[in-house]
């Protein structure tokens, strides 16, 4: 509090609100966040996905390639990956995924799935 000498009126001193330093980066524009995430290694990008839904979406949007080779997935896991991260090719294009234009299911068995980025189909869209 500050006391005015002439009128003895107590005026509150305005203090800026305390910044929450733990999550200030999430407040940046998405274009900046995409730029930041572009410098991360693949393993760090995978870890960023656990911060929040926003970061999971940004990490998915920054992917140029979806590679599941060698991983065993059941139908539920595959469905979650495709629905949560890659809604559709149109979604990828609308979100400016410049490197990825097409997802193609190359081989699918009950417990194994392989998805490859198809460069040959890139110009067909």
Automatic annotation (TrEMBL):
<dbReference type="InterPro" id="IPR036047">
    <property type="entry name" value="F-box-like_dom_sf"/>
</dbReference>
<protein>
    <submittedName>
        <fullName>F-box domain, cyclin-like protein</fullName>
    </submittedName>
</protein>
<feature type="domain" description="F-box">
    <location>
        <begin position="22"/>
        <end position="73"/>
    </location>
</feature>
<dbReference type="Pfam" id="PF00646">
    <property type="entry name" value="F-box"/>
</dbReference>
<dbReference type="InterPro" id="IPR001810">
    <property type="entry name" value="F-box_dom"/>
</dbReference>
<dbReference type="InterPro" id="IPR032675">
    <property type="entry name" value="LRR_dom_sf"/>
</dbReference>
């Amino acid at each position: 509090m500050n006391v005015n000498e002439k009128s003895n009126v107590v005026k509150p001193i305005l203090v800026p609100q305390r910044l929450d330093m733990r999550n200030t980066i999430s407040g940046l524009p998405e274009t900046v966040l995409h730029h930041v995430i572009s410098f991360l290694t693949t393993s760090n990008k995978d870890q960023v996905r656990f911060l929040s839904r926003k970061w999971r979406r940004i990490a998915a949007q920054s992917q140029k390639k979806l590679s599941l080779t060698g991983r065993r997935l059941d139908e539920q896991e595959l469905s979650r990956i495709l629905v949560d991260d890659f809604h559709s090719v149109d979604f990828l294009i609308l979100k400016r995924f410049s490197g990825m234009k097409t997802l193609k299911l190359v081989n699918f068995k009950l417990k194994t799935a392989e998805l490859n980025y198809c460069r040959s189909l890139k110009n067909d869209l």
